[in-house]
């Protein structure tokens, strides 16, 4: 039973992705640009598309990546209540990029003041003097979660 729990936890951290694009970088290279769609495991209404380089015969892939996240369905207050709201947020996707402990990670951070979700993709290993990263935001404006927050805020103001 414990093994099943551990395996399912690893699956949630790793995230689910679908390969939606594969672009060759030319005749004389073994590297391709991969484009993946990743659904947020806690917010069903958010999909992120990441692009990154993958070398078919290399032991390590480059650290460059790009991310774009969009609302692709309803985001509910119930789902929003389940996410980590700390300043560090939480990892929603992780993929190994080398045999030397380099990973591509996507972290979700909740910006309460601006009612937005921030998705940060980053490399865990320095490359060319930098930890490469990319950022995308998903506004909660007019989602079910946003409307619920507006109603609870109005109810709080009326009581005061």
Tell me what the structure shows:
The protein is of the alpha+beta class and 160 residues long. The chain has one domain. It is 21% helix and 41% strand. The chain is built from three helices and eight strands. The protein has helices at residues 2-14, 77-81, 144-159, and strands at residues 17-24, 31-39, 46-55, 65-71, 90-96, 103-111, 116-123, 133-139. A four-stranded antiparallel sheet has the order 1-2-3-4, with no helix packed on it. A four-stranded antiparallel sheet has the order 5-6-7-8. A hairpin with a 6-residue loop joins strand 5 and strand 6.
List the helices and strands and how they pair.
Blueprint: H1 2-14, E1 17-24, E2 31-39, E3 46-55, E4 65-71, H2 77-81, E5 90-96, E6 103-111, E7 116-123, E8 133-139, H3 144-159
Antiparallel strand pairs: 1-2, 2-3, 3-4, 5-6, 6-7, 7-8
